[in-house]
Amino acid sequence: MKKIAKFILKGILRLLGSLPLKVHYRLARFLAWLAGDVLRYRRDVVMTNISRCFPEKNYWELAGIRKGFYQHFGEVVAEAIWFGACRNPKRLRDAHIVEMKNPEELSRLAEVSPSCMILFSHTGNWELIGGIENYIPAGAMPPITEENVCVVYRKLSSKIWDEIMNENRTAPLKARSEFKGYLETEKIVRYIYEHKDEMKFYNLCTDQRPYFESAGYITLDFFGQPVRIMAGGAAVAHKFHMSVTYLKMHRVSQGHYTYEYITICDDASQMSVEDIMRKYYDLVEQEIKEQPENYLWSHHRFA
Question: Burial level of 223, CB count in 10 A (0-12/13-18/19+)?
Fold first, then answer.
């Protein structure tokens, strides 16, 4: 039964994904209405998070951010479904859904450090990160390739959905069946050690609260409030003398994001893990203030 269910789910997602992107944005409006007004998906969490970050705003301003968030949430889901059918990288490039603003910064970091840790947050559409090689402008030096890029993820509890998301997130790769850079969090340290003599770009989303209780977690201020943070990416970068850069995902308009790399350090061993993560959270906070609706407010950040 599980195999049948998986086959049916994959078929439905593949069929939906084959539709034009403009159709997906109509679907996004429906998903936004369904999640925000009908199912009221984590609505209390969303409003609590927003109000804690923007105490100076009145109710109607907060409600406006909440409405914008659900619209953005619908677009994230719809774009992810469409992305999963981009088995031909040309379809992804032609859509111009993401533009990389400064790939030359990655080229520079590849010259000055043994590997690079790219930290990003749940802004923009993080589910599009698997197509990163296709976002480099034509004629620019391609610092990121399928051979040197790695994306770190947390394994889902459902084996079916974990397999589906694995295929979806790596859909545009030319050699998807041979790609070894889609790494579970538990395997990242061993992988880095085994490939310490190779230049790699490690992409890690690290704005969630820690998955497990531990005395080793760092506490920092985020929007003026103490939060427990995951510092594993910074700790690994510190140990292996990696450069660290922040990936800013700015939403320009519907169907168009930009990727910009803001370097935190060329050699993480020259900074403390806490200082690296403090700089990272400063950048996340700045990005959220610029576009409050562009963040995943539905996760439990402050609890």
Answer: middle
